[in-house]
């Protein structure tokens, strides 16, 4: 009995010694004894009031970096009560799973105020399928693909998302080819619907001579190009990329705009960040308005560079006689709120809404062209009447593409405080884009919004393709990742192209796009009008960022508006390789910029 008991005791001792040796090796491998000794010594000298809190803070510095453990996709409602995608990110932080953040991405679908019921119903079904598919992707393959990845590795996350998306595109293409091969070849193929031909020119009266316009036959109107295909569920890519970027920022206790600035400038961080200039929708006189005027889907206010976003306006002066100051009082303006967040008013001429805003600013003591500028969103793609082959700028008033150029030139001549025209033509009218750039690019920005190619298409081509313009509106939708946004803004910067960060029409209360705009350093941000909670949230975020930058001493301001003349050879030069510049001994100097205040002064002297 004693020998047996002694044997068991020796065995237990040997096992205990073995465990002690393993523990010693384990702690030595992780450098625990040295760090623990240093920490205890420093704690004794510091004598913190909360000893264990101090030890916890010190040990947390040695913890492994957090890694993604779970990504969750959910269906939520946007600002219009329509389904959209929410993505939540969970990370393993100090051995425990923890919810870090969530983001909501808006869908790419446009809002149609007067859509046919069949069209609206079909779009609702398409939207529902897109969101449901995105949720499946996030909760399935994407969550597995990102498990264990550090959210700070944004480039690696975007690379995996891009590979996943490319595989989905390939699968979709193969599926469509298979479906096409299984179709019955004997089945009748419906002919595509073609717009009716333009009417013949009116017959000349007896004895009437042939004029110059009659001798020049108008070119037939180019049919609208098919919309770029959007893969069902692609919004999952953009949402997850944004969620990971926000997660990385929150884990480092940094604002998202600071993290985006680091992504854009990895070698040398900018010492100052500037808030993009606001583009605030003021009134709408577009196709859906009740008046005759169709040309102005949005009249947009832009503050002068150097003013803060929250700078107060001067006090309203007393009404003056002759300017809504007589006995009758000011004219009452009524209308409904547009989905763009501004008032839809009824006007019959192009000058009326501009004179209205000019009068209001004069009443507030603001000088147009010095304190406030305007931009016009023409939305020309909504104005084309294919039966006539012309733009219907006002009810019953039609203009061909060449006449539209003259209309815009006259508009800028009369109102030189207009510094931007958005979508003055359809994207198919490339010649007219060239013409208006030749005529007005030295006096205002020519911006492509709906007429622009998507970010993925621009990056695929590797250059800023047609139409020729001063700048483009970019939006974070579908499969656009954070890396894509950095790359496209770098491309714009290298070509001195203006970047406008815009929100989609189906908005949510997620304000992340404001941080993206600040971090990417875009010149303008277009958020719509100051109405509805989902827009006001973004404006409030912009004010918060401005305050933070001001308190940190890192607030910069955008430079003055300058307009560069876009010659006919600019597009060719942009596509030419850089080596071509070295061949020329005396390259032509850059075009001289023109300030809008110079244009206003010249107009006043005239």
Overview of the structural elements:
By secondary structure, this protein is of the alpha/beta class. 41% of the residues lie in helices and 16% in strands. The chain is built from 18 helices and 18 strands. It has helices spanning 2-29, 32-46, 51-60, 117-146, 154-182, 212-215, 235-251, 256-264, 351-364, 401-414, 430-440, 455-461, 482-494, 512-520, 533-552, 570-575, 579-583, 596-605; strands spanning 67-77, 83-93, 96-105, 273-274, 277-285, 296-303, 336-337, 343-344, 372-377, 384-385, 390-394, 397-399, 418-422, 445-448, 471-474, 498-502, 524-528, 555-556. The protein has an 8-stranded mixed barrel, surrounded by 5 helices. The chain has a 3-stranded antiparallel sheet with strand order 1-2-3. Strands 10-11-12 form a 3-stranded antiparallel sheet. α4 packs across α7 (235-251). It is globular, with a radius of gyration of 31 Å. It starts with a helix and ends with a helix. 34% of the residues are buried. Mean pLDDT is 83; it is low at 207-217, 313-332 and 574-591.
């Amino acid at each position: 009995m004693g020998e047996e008991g002694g044997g068991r005791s020796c065995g237990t001792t040997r096992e205990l010694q073995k465990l002690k040796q393993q523990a010693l090796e384990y702690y030595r491998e992780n450098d625990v004894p040295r760090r623990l000794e240093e920490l205890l010594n420093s704690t004794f000298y510091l004598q913190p009031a909360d000893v264990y809190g101090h030890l916890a803070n010190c040990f947390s510095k040695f913890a492994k970096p957090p890694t993604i453990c779970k990504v969750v996709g959910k269906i939520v409602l946007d600002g219009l009560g329509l389904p959209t995608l929410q993505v939540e990110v969970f990370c393993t932080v100090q051995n425990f799973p923890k919810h870090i953040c969530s983001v909501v991405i808006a869908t790419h679908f446009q809002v149609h105020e007067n859509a046919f019921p069949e069209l609206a119903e079909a779009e609702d079904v398409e939207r529902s399928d897109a969101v449901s598919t995105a949720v499946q992707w996030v909760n399935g393959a994407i969550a597995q693909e990102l498990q264990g990845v550090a959210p700070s590795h944004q480039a690696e996350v975007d690379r995996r998302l891009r590979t996943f998306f490319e595989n989905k595109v390939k699968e979709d293409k193969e599926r469509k080819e298979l479906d096409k091969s299984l179709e019955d070849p004997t089945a009748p193929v419906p002919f595509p619907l073609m717009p009716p031909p333009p009417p013949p020119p009116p017959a000349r009266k007896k004895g009437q001579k042939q004029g110059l316009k009659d001798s020049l036959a108008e070119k037939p109107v180019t049919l609208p190009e098919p919309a770029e295909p959007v893969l069902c569920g692609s919004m999952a890519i953009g949402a997850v990329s944004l969620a990971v970027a926000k997660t990385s920022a929150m884990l480092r206790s940094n604002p998202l705009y600071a993290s985006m600035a680091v992504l854009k400038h990895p070698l040398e961080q900018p010492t100052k960040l500037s808030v993009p200039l606001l583009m605030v929708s003021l009134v709408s006189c577009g196709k859906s308005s009740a008046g005759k005027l169709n040309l102005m889907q949005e009249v947009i206010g832009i503050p002068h560079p150097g003013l803060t976003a929250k700078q107060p306006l001067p006090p309203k002066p007393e009404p003056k006689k002759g300017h809504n100051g007589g006995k009758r009082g000011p004219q009452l303006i009524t209308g409904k709120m547009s989905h763009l967040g501004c008032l839809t008013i009824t006007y019959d001429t192009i000058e009326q809404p501009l004179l209205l805003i000019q009068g209001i600013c004069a009443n507030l003591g603001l000088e147009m062209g010095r304190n406030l500028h305007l931009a016009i969103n023409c939305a020309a793609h909504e104005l084309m009447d294919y039966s006539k082959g012309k733009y219907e700028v006002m009810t019953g008033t039609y203009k061909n593409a060449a006449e539209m150029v003259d209309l815009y030139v006259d508009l800028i001549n009369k109102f030189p405080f207009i510094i931007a025209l958005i979508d003055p033509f359809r994207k198919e009218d490339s010649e007219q884009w060239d013409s208006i750039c030749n005529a007005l690019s030295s006096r205002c920005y020519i911006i492509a919004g709906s007429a622009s190619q998507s970010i993925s298409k621009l990056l695929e081509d590797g250059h800023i393709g047609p139409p020729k313009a001063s700048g483009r509106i970019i939006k974070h939708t579908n499969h656009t990742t954070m890396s894509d946004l950095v790359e496209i803004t770098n491309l714009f910067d290298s070509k001195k192209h203006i970047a406008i960060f815009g929100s989609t029409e189906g908005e949510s209360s997620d304000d992340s796009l404001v941080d993206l705009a600040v971090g990417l350093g875009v010149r303008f941000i277009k958020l719509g009008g100051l109405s509805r909670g989902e827009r006001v949230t973004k404006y409030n975020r912009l004010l918060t960022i401005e305050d933070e930058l001001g308190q940190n001493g890192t607030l910069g301001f955008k430079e003055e508006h300058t307009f560069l003349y876009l010659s006919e050879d600019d597009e060719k030069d942009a596509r030419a390789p850089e080596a071509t510049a070295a061949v020329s001994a005396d390259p032509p100097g850059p075009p001289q910029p023109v300030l809008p205040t110079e244009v206003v002064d010249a107009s006043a002297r005239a």
